[in-house]
Amino acid sequence: MLHIPLGSLRDQAISFPTTVTGEFLAKNRLSKRARAQLAADIISGKVRVADFTIKQAAALCSVSVAYINEARAPDPAVAKLLRDWNEAGPNQRVAFARAANAERIFDVLVPAID
């Protein structure tokens, strides 16, 4: 049986790849000490963050995910629809779905998810 004193694991230098993804940052299970080391490496430029999640980008830029989605819309008509949808309350969204025919909306959603 291999015995490694706990203190020696804590004091070991932690090395990270040169690039980490936003998803890794969101889902890793590193210890607080390892996360602090990773943050220090990011700040010093040793580690680069690529592919932020939309939630991370929203938090960093102090905007909502809805605003980012609107900004990413390639077509002004799509941007307007997103803006109107995001400004609508729950009852207005239900009324819209009924008026537009929920089945037609569902038919459009299925290919959009793929």
Explain what the structure shows.
This protein is mostly helical and 114 residues long. The protein folds into two domains: 14-51, no CATH class; 64-114, no CATH class. The protein is 67% helix and 5% strand. It has eight helices and two strands. The protein has a two-stranded parallel ribbon with strand order 1-2. The longest helix has 13 residues, at 32-44. The chain starts with 5 loop residues before the first helix and ends with a helix. The model is unreliable at 1-11 (pLDDT under 50).
Could you name the key traits of this structure?
114 residues; single chain; 2 strands; 67% helix; disordered N terminus; two-stranded parallel ribbon; mainly alpha
Summarize the structure.
The protein has 8 helices and 2 strands, in the order H-E-H-H-E-H-H-H-H-H. With 114 residues, the chain is mostly helical. The chain has a two-stranded parallel ribbon with strand order 1-2.
What's the average pLDDT?
84
State the separation between the terminal residues, measured CA to CA: 49 Å
Number of helices: 8
Gyration radius, rounded: 22 Å
Please write the string of helix (H) and strand (E) elements: HEHHEHHHHH
Largest sheet: 2 strands, parallel
Q: Give the strand order of the largest sheet, numbering strands 1, 2, ... along the chain.
A: 1-2
What's the number of structural domains? 2
- Count of extended strands: 2
- Share of helix among residues? 55-70%
Structural class: mainly alpha
The rough form would be described as elongated
Low-pLDDT stretches are 1-11
Q: DSSP strand (E) fraction?
A: 5-15%
